[in-house]
């Protein structure tokens, strides 16, 4: 007998495995618990005996087969998208899966499972396998060239035939301890031919007769040539699915932590309630029992919601793991042809799993508080205090109010109000929430205003700020780390303050200490000066952009000088911070501000 390593190289038998065959459970049907017989893969990647699947009761689905239905992508299954769907529920994961038009028989065969059944049979004691040629005798030999198991009679005939006389045949006993054996996979349309080619158009393995018949105009290649491209695409899908598995595991750990936190908070609140109830003897004891029951109901309610979310995520994780484990096993243990045969159903399942929406955040919060100072009504004739607070602020329900939320004046105090509400839209009625506010200039990202936040202790917060620069600002408000009014971002437009033109009484107030009598202010109605407020006294304005201007009491009956009109037209706004007012032949310099509007 030749060396085992030489047999492994010569007969295409892959790596040895120690002792017992790996994955014993993968060789048995989940329904009948027997070794797989004609195993078929459902689109959810669970494998069953074909006979067991035929015992399941299929049901019709209203409508027609859709493009994204959870079914295999074999080309022969897509002949007619307008057939009514037949579906079954997977006995393992309860997933509703669509059957192909040909029914159970057209499901993808699990050749990996067949190989593992063969290996387990080799390891087991007792009756051996049947001959692949006569199906009556017990197989004792294996022909790697024909990839067939032979009984003693067929082995003798195998040696006598000229065509097969040169084949190197090995005892089945010598195959024990190896991880897989090669067995030919025949074409379902041409049972005498092996599947050695791959049709690129139909994306399915074919034989030589297929490419000269039904697939004669389709591009094709040898399976060994295309396995790299299709194997890489499945590996990419596997990486994406593995990321979801890691995320789901983290989400479940988070939920477990929240569940533990809820239990801890419940115990802490229960302790507070018991301490508070001791002073009221019978009345407070009754009140205590009532509060504990309410707390327990709240705990059950929250844990029920968490348990439901946890069950959904666990099922999704189980589906993800099934997809990952099956694909990893296919890519690491499957032959090129087995990978290509199973590619359609595996890729379809992984894509569907990758598109499942799920939330990694717990569906309920762990916020449970006890308020001992809040009135709880009468208990046994005594007024009792202490209630359980289960209200939690919902940032999505918070509201911003105030005119200064959308417009403000430069360097002037502006303010608006934040109303904190719970998930039902009711005002919280209490303060103490962590509020973070930033007002950011739209064009100058480094211009950030940090306003003052005043907690009114009734669920409202007064926010005030002073904008230093002109422009548009974005208001960002976070409650418990989440933005409020995300759909309607608050935008503040800051404009320049336009001081009112001083009137007679205003200037007179400034001239009181000078004992100067103020002449009245009048408004002219002449062309460029139609909106210019002037006085009856002589005013000498300071130099503006290199132009010296002046006017006297008769200016309101004349046009402005050309140079002054040009300044107004070009700048649109001119401020004169000081001027000289002439009174009784003397000039008095005062501080004032005249605003010229174009």
TrEMBL record:
<dbReference type="InterPro" id="IPR013083">
    <property type="entry name" value="Znf_RING/FYVE/PHD"/>
</dbReference>
<dbReference type="GO" id="GO:0005654">
    <property type="term" value="C:nucleoplasm"/>
</dbReference>
<keyword id="KW-0862">Zinc</keyword>
<protein>
    <recommendedName>
        <fullName>RING-type E3 ubiquitin transferase</fullName>
        <ecNumber>2.3.2.27</ecNumber>
    </recommendedName>
</protein>
<feature type="domain" description="B box-type">
    <location>
        <begin position="126"/>
        <end position="172"/>
    </location>
</feature>
<dbReference type="InterPro" id="IPR047153">
    <property type="entry name" value="TRIM45/56/19-like"/>
</dbReference>
<keyword id="KW-0479">Metal-binding</keyword>
<dbReference type="GO" id="GO:0008270">
    <property type="term" value="F:zinc ion binding"/>
</dbReference>
<dbReference type="InterPro" id="IPR017868">
    <property type="entry name" value="Filamin/ABP280_repeat-like"/>
</dbReference>
<dbReference type="InterPro" id="IPR027370">
    <property type="entry name" value="Znf-RING_euk"/>
</dbReference>
<feature type="repeat" description="Filamin">
    <location>
        <begin position="390"/>
        <end position="493"/>
    </location>
</feature>
<dbReference type="InterPro" id="IPR017907">
    <property type="entry name" value="Znf_RING_CS"/>
</dbReference>
<dbReference type="Pfam" id="PF00630">
    <property type="entry name" value="Filamin"/>
</dbReference>
<dbReference type="InterPro" id="IPR013783">
    <property type="entry name" value="Ig-like_fold"/>
</dbReference>
<dbReference type="GO" id="GO:0050728">
    <property type="term" value="P:negative regulation of inflammatory response"/>
</dbReference>
<dbReference type="GO" id="GO:0045171">
    <property type="term" value="C:intercellular bridge"/>
</dbReference>
<dbReference type="GO" id="GO:0043161">
    <property type="term" value="P:proteasome-mediated ubiquitin-dependent protein catabolic process"/>
</dbReference>
<dbReference type="InterPro" id="IPR001298">
    <property type="entry name" value="Filamin/ABP280_rpt"/>
</dbReference>
<dbReference type="GO" id="GO:0061630">
    <property type="term" value="F:ubiquitin protein ligase activity"/>
</dbReference>
<dbReference type="Pfam" id="PF00643">
    <property type="entry name" value="zf-B_box"/>
</dbReference>
<dbReference type="InterPro" id="IPR000315">
    <property type="entry name" value="Znf_B-box"/>
</dbReference>
<dbReference type="GO" id="GO:0005829">
    <property type="term" value="C:cytosol"/>
</dbReference>
<feature type="domain" description="RING-type">
    <location>
        <begin position="29"/>
        <end position="94"/>
    </location>
</feature>
<keyword id="KW-0175">Coiled coil</keyword>
<keyword id="KW-0863">Zinc-finger</keyword>
<dbReference type="GO" id="GO:0006954">
    <property type="term" value="P:inflammatory response"/>
</dbReference>
<feature type="coiled-coil region">
    <location>
        <begin position="281"/>
        <end position="308"/>
    </location>
</feature>
<dbReference type="Pfam" id="PF13445">
    <property type="entry name" value="zf-RING_UBOX"/>
</dbReference>
<keyword id="KW-0677">Repeat</keyword>
<dbReference type="InterPro" id="IPR014756">
    <property type="entry name" value="Ig_E-set"/>
</dbReference>
<dbReference type="InterPro" id="IPR001841">
    <property type="entry name" value="Znf_RING"/>
</dbReference>
<feature type="domain" description="B box-type">
    <location>
        <begin position="182"/>
        <end position="218"/>
    </location>
</feature>
<comment type="similarity">
    <text>Belongs to the TRIM/RBCC family.</text>
</comment>
<dbReference type="GO" id="GO:0070936">
    <property type="term" value="P:protein K48-linked ubiquitination"/>
</dbReference>
């Amino acid at each position: 007998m030749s060396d085992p390593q030489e047999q492994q190289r010569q007969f295409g038998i892959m790596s040895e495995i120690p002792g017992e065959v790996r994955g014993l459970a993968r060789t048995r049907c989940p329904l009948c618990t027997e070794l797989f017989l004609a195993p078929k893969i459902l689109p959810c990647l669970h494998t069953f005996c074909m006979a067991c699947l035929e015992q399941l009761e299929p049901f019709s689905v209203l409508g027609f087969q859709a493009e994204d239905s959870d079914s295999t992508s074999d080309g022969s299954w897509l002949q007619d998208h307008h057939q009514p769907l037949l579906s079954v529920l997977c006995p393992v994961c309860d997933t509703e899966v669509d059957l192909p038009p040909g029914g159970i028989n057209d499901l993808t065969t699990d050749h990996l499972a067949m190989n593992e059944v063969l290996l387990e049979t080799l390891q087991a004691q007792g009756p051996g396998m049947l001959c692949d040629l006569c199906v009556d005798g017990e197989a004792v030999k294996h022909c790697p060239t024909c990839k067939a198991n032979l009984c003693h009679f067929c082995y003798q005939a195998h040696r006598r035939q000229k065509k097969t006389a040169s084949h190197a045949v090995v005892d089945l006993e010598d195959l024990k301890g190896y991880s897989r054996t090669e067995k030919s996979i025949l074409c379902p349309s041409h049972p005498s031919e092996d599947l050695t080619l791959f049709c690129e158009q139909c994306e399915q393995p074919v034989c030589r007769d297929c490419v000269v018949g039904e697939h004669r105009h389709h591009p094709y290649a040898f399976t060994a040539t295309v396995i790299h491209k299709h194997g890489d695409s499945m590996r990419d899908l596997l990486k994406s699915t593995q990321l979801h598995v890691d995320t789901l595991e983290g989400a479940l750990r988070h939920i477990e932590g929240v569940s533990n936190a809820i239990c801890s908070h419940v115990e802490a609140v229960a302790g507070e309630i018991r301490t508070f109830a001791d002073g009221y003897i019978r009345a407070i004891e009754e009140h205590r029992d009532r509060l504990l029951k309410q707390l327990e109901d709240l705990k059950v309610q929250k844990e029920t919601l968490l348990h439901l979310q946890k069950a959904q995520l666990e099922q999704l994780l189980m589906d993800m793991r099934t997809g990952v484990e099956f694909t990893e096993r296919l890519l690491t243990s499957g032959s090129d042809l087995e990978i290509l045969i199973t590619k359609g159903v595996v890729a379809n399942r992984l894509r569907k799993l990758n598109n499942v929406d799920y939330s990694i955040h717990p569906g309920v919060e762990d916020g449970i508080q006890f308020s001992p100072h809040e009135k709880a009504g009468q208990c046994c004739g005594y007024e009792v205090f202490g209630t359980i607070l289960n209200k939690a602020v919902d940032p999505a329900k918070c509201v911003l109010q105030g005119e200064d939320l959308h417009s403000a004046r430069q360097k002037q105090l502006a303010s608006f109000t934040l109303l904190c509400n719970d998930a039902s839209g009711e005002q919280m009625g209490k303060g103490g929430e962590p509020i973070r506010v930033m007002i950011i200039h739209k064009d100058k990202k480094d211009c950030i205003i940090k306003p003052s936040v005043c907690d009114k202790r009734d669920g409202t917060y007064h926010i005030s700020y002073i904008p230093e620069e002109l422009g548009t600002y974005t208001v960002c408000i976070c409650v418990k780390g989440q933005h409020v009014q995300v759909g309607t971002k608050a935008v503040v437009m800051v404009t320049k303050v336009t001081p009112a033109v001083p009137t007679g009484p205003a200037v007179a107030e400034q001239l009181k200490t000078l004992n100067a009598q103020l002449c009245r202010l009048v408004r002219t109605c002449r062309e460029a000066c139609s909106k210019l407020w002037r006085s009856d006294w002589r005013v000498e304005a300071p130099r503006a952009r290199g132009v010296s201007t002046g006017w006297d009491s008769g200016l309101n009956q004349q046009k402005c000088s050309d140079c002054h009109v040009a300044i107004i037209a070009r700048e649109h706004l001119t401020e004169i911070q000081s001027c000289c007012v002439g009174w009784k032949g003397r000039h008095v310099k005062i501080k004032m501000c005249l605003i010229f509007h174009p």
